[in-house]
Specification:
The chain is 19% helix and 25% strand. By secondary structure, the chain is of the alpha/beta class. Strands 1, 2, 3, 4, 5 and 6 form a six-stranded mixed beta sheet that branches.
Length: 130
């Protein structure tokens, strides 16, 4: 058994684990297999994982400090299929995006400011800046 820290967060109408990229395998095939196992993908109830058995609760956010000058953090969205053992990193998810800023502050990737803290996010799925 391998222990990998994550934070279960609600983002808009979605919910899922948010991981630091540095805690996950560097190779995407190994990372994807680990996410499938963690979520319990392949069973419609995701009974052996932390997925909720629906597309809205089978979403993952992966966050890291950004090396881009216009972003503080990078965000990769992963949609984990419920009944199929497959992930999709092509789309974006604005709901899970809502969890990225608070996660980045909580994990020390962005220093909290008095009042409002701005978090500049680069979405790696689409190359857009938020």
């Amino acid at each position: 058994m391998q222990l990998i820290p994550c934070v279960l967060m609600r983002g808009g109408t979605s919910k899922g684990p948010v991981f630091l990229a540095s805690d996950l395998p560097a190779r995407s095939a190994e990372r994807d297999e680990m996410l499938l196992d963690a979520m319990g993908s392949g069973h419609e109830l995701e009974i052996d994982g932390i997925g909720g058995g629906s597309p809205q609760t089978s979403k993952v956010a992966i966050v890291s400090r950004s090396d881009h000058p216009d972003a503080d953090v990078d965000y990769l969205f992963v949609q984990v299929m419920v009944s199929q053992r497959r992930v999709d990193t092509a789309p974006n998810c604005g709901n899970m995006l809502c969890a990225v800023g608070p996660f980045a502050i909580d994990q020390g990737l962005v220093q909290a400011q008095s009042g409002v803290t701005q978090v500049r996010i680069r979405n790696l799925n689409t190359g857009t800046f938020i």
